[in-house]
Automatic annotation (TrEMBL):
<dbReference type="InterPro" id="IPR011009">
    <property type="entry name" value="Kinase-like_dom_sf"/>
</dbReference>
<dbReference type="GO" id="GO:0004674">
    <property type="term" value="F:protein serine/threonine kinase activity"/>
</dbReference>
<keyword id="KW-0472">Membrane</keyword>
<keyword id="KW-0067">ATP-binding</keyword>
<dbReference type="InterPro" id="IPR008271">
    <property type="entry name" value="Ser/Thr_kinase_AS"/>
</dbReference>
<feature type="compositionally biased region" description="Polar residues">
    <location>
        <begin position="316"/>
        <end position="330"/>
    </location>
</feature>
<keyword id="KW-0723">Serine/threonine-protein kinase</keyword>
<keyword id="KW-0808">Transferase</keyword>
<keyword id="KW-1133">Transmembrane helix</keyword>
<keyword id="KW-0547">Nucleotide-binding</keyword>
<feature type="binding site">
    <location>
        <position position="40"/>
    </location>
    <ligand>
        <name>ATP</name>
    </ligand>
</feature>
<feature type="region of interest" description="Disordered">
    <location>
        <begin position="315"/>
        <end position="343"/>
    </location>
</feature>
<dbReference type="InterPro" id="IPR017441">
    <property type="entry name" value="Protein_kinase_ATP_BS"/>
</dbReference>
<dbReference type="InterPro" id="IPR000719">
    <property type="entry name" value="Prot_kinase_dom"/>
</dbReference>
<protein>
    <recommendedName>
        <fullName>non-specific serine/threonine protein kinase</fullName>
        <ecNumber>2.7.11.1</ecNumber>
    </recommendedName>
</protein>
<dbReference type="GO" id="GO:0005524">
    <property type="term" value="F:ATP binding"/>
</dbReference>
<feature type="domain" description="Protein kinase">
    <location>
        <begin position="11"/>
        <end position="266"/>
    </location>
</feature>
């Protein structure tokens, strides 16, 4: 019989709870106090440099110090720090719960009232941290534990930053998860309470819609989505959508504050009349213009993202006055322009089709990188998604909002203009996806009809102003896994 391992003559290891690239979490028994704990072991891979190891160890110690400063029921308590045989361990409160990302993956999109209750608890933890001069910097679904009774724990303060403390990074890079980082952080601004609140807004959108709103096929595409593409909110109640949009305001000076968000979320959780989205009229610190934002992203993403501008045809406000005057030439010999096909005919590869009201695909309800069971067929709507880890016909592998820098009531730029954009954009995005596939893939670009474009502000059934890139197997056999990651 194998002898039970005991750390520091106190913590008996019982079972492994989870393992990542940099460590292991164990369920352990504190033999001194007779209670179950989570024991987090720093266990980086072989060959890691001494400097990088020191940074990782300091992050772990920072997690303990940070949690020790915070007294809130939604913050995981750290009990002890142990060093033994060259390894560092944290003894922490054991939370028997799934994280929010796993809950959404297993059970699907969350109810708005349920989400409001979870968000209120996370918000309380963040307010406590902010009042102590600490920003979390990595709020996301996988760092939010939700017990069956609804109690919430915000975890992983390992990269939390005191507002008067230098960044804990050995190379000067920005630390965090790109899909949950705010535009101000991506533009080089310091992490702040406002950036934590942005991440909470992204997390809420993920939970109620069932998919991360900004996650794309590559880091560059993800950064572009964060900066330029408002989240698609189709399942969120109007009141919760107002909270999410308020938290996802690009200018941090106009973003919802914690007290404002709490007021709105409390009304949702209690079933009270909705609280109107406040108008933050602050004028200070509004230098975060679109130009500065794009500059910041280009600096982070490099030439891959800078090339995005090459996807755009001639500006719709050009002196010609004709938004269809520009004709994209790249791959023009491979693409089929919009044209009518018999109802029920499969849409061929490298073809532009129109979607939405009156389009070739009259209804399209997928977002993010979702999958659907049926293939793209002329005249057939795509209403429901299917799990990407099971058999499916198509996958939405990328999307873009070409006129992100224009008001949403901008006139329809024309099918041909959008088609030129989609040809170039989808071709570039396909170059990222294709090497991952073992089978020959087909793909097409979907552009909105004029009616779909103009219904953007329709409260009952909002339209879309995106171009969409959709892939499938050329032999029309089912896909059996996601090609986007």
């Amino acid at each position: 019989m194998q002898q039970q391992q005991v750390i520091a003559n106190r913590y008996a290891l019982l079972v492994e709870l989870g393992r990542g690239a940099m460590g292991v979490v164990w369920r352990a028994q504190d033999q001194l106090l007779g209670r179950a704990v989570a024991l987090k072991e720093l266990h980086p891979p072989q060959g890691i440099g001494a400097e990088e190891f020191a940074v990782l160890e300091e992050r772990m110690l920072r997690e303990a110090r940070t949690a020790g400063r915070l007294n809130h029921p939604a913050v995981v308590t750290v009990y002890d720090i142990v060093r033994e045989n060259g390894r560092t361990y944290l003894a922490m409160e054991l939370v028997d719960a799934l994280d929010l990302a796993s809950i959404v993956q297993r059970l699907g999109p969350r109810d708005p009232v349920w989400m409001a209750n979870v968000a209120l608890q996370v918000l309380g933890a963040l307010e406590t941290a902010h009042q102590a001069g600490i920003v979390h910097r990595d709020v996301k679904p996988s760092n939010i534990m939700v017990r069956p009774d609804g109690a919430v724990k915000l975890t992983d303060f390992g990269i939390a930053q005191a507002m008067d403390d230098p960044r804990l990074t050995h190379n000067g890079g920005i630390v965090g998860s790109p899909a949950y980082m705010s535009p101000d952080r991506l533009s080089g601004w310091e992490a702040s309470p406002a950036s934590d609140l942005w991440a909470l807004g992204v997390t809420m959108a993920h939970a109620v819609e069932g998919i991360s709103p900004f996650e794309r096929t590559s880091t560059a595409a993800t950064l572009h989505a964060v900066m330029n593409e408002p989240p698609v909110l189709r399942r969120a109640s109007p009141a919760l959508a107002d909270v999410i949009r308020g938290l996802l305001t690009v200018d941090p000076a106009r973003r919802l504050t914690a007290p404002q968000a709490r007021h709105m979320l409390t009304a949702i959780a209690q079933g009270a009349p909705p609280v109107p989205l406040p108008r933050n009229g602050k004028k200070k610190n509004t230098a975060l213009t679109a130009t500065a934002v794009v500059l910041g992203v280009v600096m982070l993403a490099g030439a891959a993202f800078a090339g995005y501008q090459a996807f755009k045809p001639k500006d719709v406000t050009s002196s010609s006055g004709d938004p269809t005057a520009s004709q994209g030439q790249e791959n023009s010999d491979e693409w089929t322009d919009p044209a009518s096909l018999p109802v029920g005919a499969p849409l061929p590869s490298r073809r532009i089709a129109v979607f939405g009201r009156g389009g070739d695909v009259p209804e399209w309800n997928l977002s993010g990188t979702q999958c659907a069971k049926d293939f793209l067929m002329q005249g057939s709507p795509v209403r429901t998604s299917a799990p990407c880890d099971g058999p499916h016909g198509i996958q939405l592998f990328s999307a873009a909002t070409p006129l992100w820098d224009k008001p949403k009531d901008t006139a329809y730029p024309g099918t041909q203009w959008l088609a030129d954009f989609a040809k170039n954009y989808c071709t570039e995005q396909f170059k990222v996806v294709e090497p991952k596939a073992k089978d020959a893939l087909g793909f097409t670009g979907l552009v909105p009809t004029q009616k779909e474009w103009e219904a953007y502000n329709d409260a009952a059934a909002p339209g879309r102003q995106e171009v969409l890139c959709v892939l499938w197997k050329r032999d029309r056999s089912p896909l059996t896994g996601s090609l986007v990651g």
